[in-house]
Design goal:
Blueprint lengths: L1 H6 L39 H6 L2 E6 L4 E6 L2 E7 L12 E3 L3 E3 L15 E3 L6 E4 L12 E3 L1 H10 L5 E6 L6 H10 L8 H13 L35 E8 L2 H14 L7 E9 L2 E10 L2 H10 L5 E2 L2
Parallel strand pairs: 1-9, 7-8
Antiparallel strand pairs: 1-2, 2-3, 4-9, 5-6, 6-7, 10-12, 10-13, 11-12
Length: about 300
């Protein structure tokens, strides 16, 4: 009984074949020919695939920091509070097993666990909670309320991977490097991936159009060394930066989605600027126009991050 209670800590409540001898063999003109049955391997998703097209979350237990990447671009970062001594948060690669916007602990005085995202069935979840500046939870990963709310909106059972490590991650570039070198399958239920694959096939194999991350932000600050072979386009008027992605195609895709969402951007001059920051190649999505700074302020009020460049 005690073991069953402990395993639920910091987690939401989880609440005849025919006889072969009676089956007649199929008739065949050539009984020697036996058709081969090839079973399709269950679908899987790797860390690299989620990083490119999905939500990739890194959590450093030593740094008490979370970094989130969406569709290959930095989304946001936040401090966290993980498990205290004796209740340490385990390291590893996790998927989102369950999401509940409103939940209360069934063990710890009915404590609220808003925007809960379950990582394991035996006690670990991401949720909003108090951050005292050090590991203080019973194993869960606590986040500031606003960050937990926004993160809850973009994650999914088949599109999200969580990497928890003991090593320090000083900045976004180190978190990205960790994600890139992590060669692992995300423990997503194959049945969910199969249903997703079947639904996609019925739609002609084309995924639905997606808007960019609501708060895609710039790459981390650092020494910038643009590749000499890449010409810098001349931008006229005021210039703002809208995103920093990992490929030119991702930057262009962000622009197309942004202009669909905010048609006024179509009147601005767009440019994709390559830059190397802390050893990582980024492609900065920028836009220029006479009133670019005012446009940036309007975008921020609608939840789209940007900042003036010149």
């Amino acid at each position: 009984m005690a073991a069953a209670l402990l395993s639920a800590a910091c987690v939401p409540d989880a609440r005849g074949a025919a006889d072969p001898a009676q089956i007649a063999p199929a008739q065949s003109e050539d009984p020697a020919v036996v058709p081969a049955v090839i079973e399709e391997a269950p679908p899987t998703r790797t860390i690299g695939e989620v990083l490119e097209n999905g939500v990739l979350i890194t959590i450093s237990l030593q740094s008490q920091q979370m970094h989130v990447f969406r569709d290959g671009a930095l989304w946001r970062s936040s401090p966290v509070s993980t498990g205290k001594r004796g209740k340490e948060t385990p390291a590893g690669v996790f998927a989102i097993l369950q999401k509940k916007k409103f939940h209360r602990s069934n063990l710890y005085s009915n404590a609220p666990m808003p925007f809960m995202q379950r990582l394991t069935w035996d006690g670990i979840a991401i949720h909003a909670g108090r951050l005292p500046g050090y590991p203080a939870s019973h194993g869960c990963i606590r986040l500031p309320d606003e960050f937990a709310r926004e993160l809850f909106k973009i994650t999914g059972a088949t599109s999200t991977a969580v990497i928890v490590v003991d090593e320090p991650l000083a900045n976004d570039a180190e978190a990205l490097a960790l994600a890139r070198r992590t060669e692992a399958l995300v423990p997503i239920d194959p049945a969910l991936l199969q249903r997703e694959r079947s639904a996609l096939a019925q739609k002609g194999g084309k995924p639905a159009n997606r808007l960019p991350a609501a708060r895609t932000i710039a790459a981390p600050q650092g020494t910038v060394n643009p590749p000499s072979s890449a010409p810098m386009p001349a931008l006229n008027g005021q210039t703002i930066q809208l995103a920093a992605t990992l490929s030119p195609d991702l930057a262009t895709g962000q622009w197309e989605a942004l202009t669909t969402r905010r048609p006024e951007l179509r009147g601005m001059q767009m440019a994709v600027i390559p830059a190397v920051v802390n050893g990582t190649q980024y492609y900065r999505l920028r836009a220029s126009g006479p009133d670019a700074h005012a446009t940036c302020l309007t975008l921020k009020r609608t939840g789209i991050d940007c900042f003036p460049v010149s």
